[in-house]
Amino acid sequence: MAAGEGTDIQGPLPVLLAMLVCEQVITDKDTNKKSLIGIFDQLHIREFPASFSMTVFARIADAKGKYSLKLELAHLQDDKIVEESHGFADIENRTSTHDLLFNLPIVIPKEGFYEFRLYANNAYLGRAAFQAVHERGEVK
After folding, report:
1. Is 15-134 a CATH 2.60.40.2550 domain?
2. Cα 70 to chain centroid, rounded
3. If we measure between CA atoms, which residue out of 123, 101, 98 comes closest to residue 12?
4. pTM
């Protein structure tokens, strides 16, 4: 059954305002402001496969209702899905922006270009890409 068929998952298609890959996100407990630490679009890796902890930050707008979320990591050269994560969001205020955080343990199987793809109720919202580079010397 596809998301939205026979379930209470509903709502307008959100607009993706930003999507970044970083090492971690710190949320200020008083202001709820987010600080993205270690934003990157390139990883220097000495040996494959390689394991990392990553955070994908996405800010969406124009969302209201219940959403089934999917985040895929794809290797672009062969368009193979390497990792997949699922979640749900229940958003009440359509006039505000909403931040989505995906804290993920990831295995990078080989060198190349990768992208995270974000979906809400099976509709594609956007992507964030990075490159995994085989570093034969000292890792930067």
Report:
1. yes
2. 9
3. 123
4. 0.88
* Contact predicate 11/24, CB 8 Å: no
User: To 5 degrees, how large is the angle CA 101–CA 111–CA 87?
Assistant: 20
- Model confidence pLDDT, tens digit, residues 13-39: 999 999 999 999 999 999 999 999 999
- How many other C-beta atoms can be found within 10 angstroms of the C-beta atom of residue 99? 14
CA distance 17 to 96: 12
* Helix (H/G/I), strand (E/B), else coil: 98: strand
Q: Could you tell me the CA-to-CA distances from 77 to 16, 100, 114, 116 in Å, in that order?
A: 25, 27, 8, 14
Pairwise CA distance, residues 70 & 84, whole Å: 7
User: 36: closest CA among 25, 46, 21, 27?
Assistant: 25
Helix (H, G, I), strand (E, B) or coil at 23: coil
pLDDT digits (tens, 9 = 90+) for 114-139: 999 999 999 999 999 999 999 986 55
